[in-house]
Amino acid sequence: MSFFAILCALLIEQVRPLGPHNPVYGAVLAWTRWTSRNFDAGKPHHGWIAWGLAVFVPTLGALGVHWLLVLTLGLPFAVLWSIAVLYVTLGFRQFSHHFTDIRDALDEGDEPLARSLLAHWQGVDAANLPRSEIVRHVIEHSVIAAHRHVFGVLAWFSIIAAIGLGPAGAVFYRMSEFVSRYWAHKNGAAVQPSSVSVQQAADRAWHMIDWLPARITALGFAVVGSFEEAIDCWRNDAQRFPNENDGVILAATSGAVNVRLGGGSLRPIPVTDPLPRAQAGESLADGRRTDTGSTPGREPEPGHLRSVVGLVWRSVVMWMVLLALLTLARLLG
Asked: From the CA atom positions of the chain, what is the Rg in Å?
């Protein structure tokens, strides 16, 4: 039933996207703050305790509801629960409005507005970016957001649901990403910053959890894009990015659509809000990369934004077709 749950969640999210200020995200934020406030005592084991509680309690909660529904009301109600969980954790509309607004500003020639929208989205200083660099950063942030909101969730949900654990994988992946991003961001806050221990625990866990999904996403981009160039760029240029998993995705994207990515840095705006744009799910750390060189490819231009949109949607269709075929084979077998 994984295919039907994913398809329904994507369709519902396209028709009625989840708002940025909703009770679910508010509860997740409150829970994450509570665990760090009560268990972040600065020691390494405290960091892992805080991370484990923040991530595993919601994950086990989702699993518990799934099995309760299976045992009491039946599988159809469990599928409805999976759709509801995927609606919250999966979807383009949670970040795509940023991409669309910046693309429209560039199409209209309003570069100051595009810079302002990029700065607001990622919490960075984009005042002096030339047009090509605006496009480059929009591509990088959008591809990573698509991975974390769509492909990474799809991977973990599908794998965990295949062994009978319902939507627990989707919750596990999104909570791992959220707490890593939140605690890293909170380190720059003026009030109650996160300790090094809790940040390191969250970062190490997130790197391991995202290792396989990142490569699945990169492989999908290679298959639906320019395969040889994507694989070549993946092998030779992924190390240009400071984050290994993100580097694999961005390098594959660069080769798949023949666009230069990487090589620049954005200066973060000082943190004043406890969690700006927390519900949107974007990685603030992406804007703080160091200058590590760029991938080969053409200079970024607005036309590449349309190419990236096509690349992402083709990849979604490919994975959905693959899931449909696996579902059909299971039903017939």
From this structure: 20
DSSP H/E element including 167: none
Distances (CA, A) of 224 to 15, 96, 126, 239, 248: 26, 21, 32, 23, 16
> For the chain, how many helices (H) and strands (E)?
13, 2
**Distance of alpha carbon 272 from alpha carbon 150, whole angstroms:** 29
Nearest to 122 by CA among 140, 108, 105: 140
Torsion of CA 76, 77, 79, 84, to 10 degrees: 150
Task: Name the helix (H) or strand (E) containing 23.
Answer: helix 23-39
Helices 44-72 & 23-39, crossing angle to 10 degrees?
140
Alpha-carbon distance 157 to 329, whole Å? 19
Query: Is 260 in contact with 293 (CB distance < 8 Å)?
Result: no
Q: How far apart are CA 210 and CA 63, in angstroms?
A: 20
Residue pair 62/167 in contact by the 8 Å Cβ criterion = yes
Question: Residues 255-305: pLDDT tens digits?
Answer: 999 999 987 656 555 544 444 443 433 443 343 344 457 888 899 999 999
